[in-house]
Structures are given as structure tokens and as C-alpha cells.
Design brief:
Elements lengths: L1 H21 L3 H10 L6 H10 L4 H10 L11
Helix pairs in contact: 2-4
């Protein structure tokens, strides 16, 4: 279970870093998601990201909506 928590923290960190890099707030992300057909509320998005417990589908939706075309999984 501890190993799973590590992966959740990594996914959360990647998503938060991409949003911060682009200066995207949670409210803006909700609006961007709506433009690609994904209906989420700001509290729901905030909670998903804070917990780090979200699906790969949600991660991909967020990346697509915010214009991320590639991800760096590890800093060298």
C-alpha cells in the first residue's frame, strides 16, 4: 500500500507541476475541461488532485485540456 501512495504522490506532483508551469488555476482547468467535453466541478477537481487519487483518464483529460503535449516523468 505504501508503494501505491508513492505513485499517487507522483501523479499528483506531475499534474500540479504542469498546471503551475502554465499558470492554470483549478477554476481555469474546470473551464478548459468543459471545452473538451468533461464536466467537473471545481471542488471535485481540487479534491481529486489534493488526494492524488484520480484515474489515468482524468490525467489525460487534464493534459489535453491544458495543452500539454508531452510529460517529463523524471528530472535528470
Amino acid at each position: 500500500m505504501a508503494d501505491e501512495s508513492r505513485w499517487e504522490a507522483k501523479a499528483k506532483g506531475i499534474l500540479k507541476a504542469e498546471l503551475k508551469r502554465r499558470g492554470i488555476s483549478y477554476q481555469q482547468l474546470v473551464e478548459m475541461l468543459a471545452r473538451v467535453g468533461v464536466e467537473e466541478s471545481e471542488p471535485n477537481v481540487r479534491n481529486k488532485i489534493a488526494r492524488g487519487k484520480f484515474s489515468a483518464v482524468f490525467l489525460l483529460q487534464c493534459m489535453e485540456a491544458s495543452g500539454v503535449h508531452s510529460l517529463r516523468l523524471k528530472d535528470d
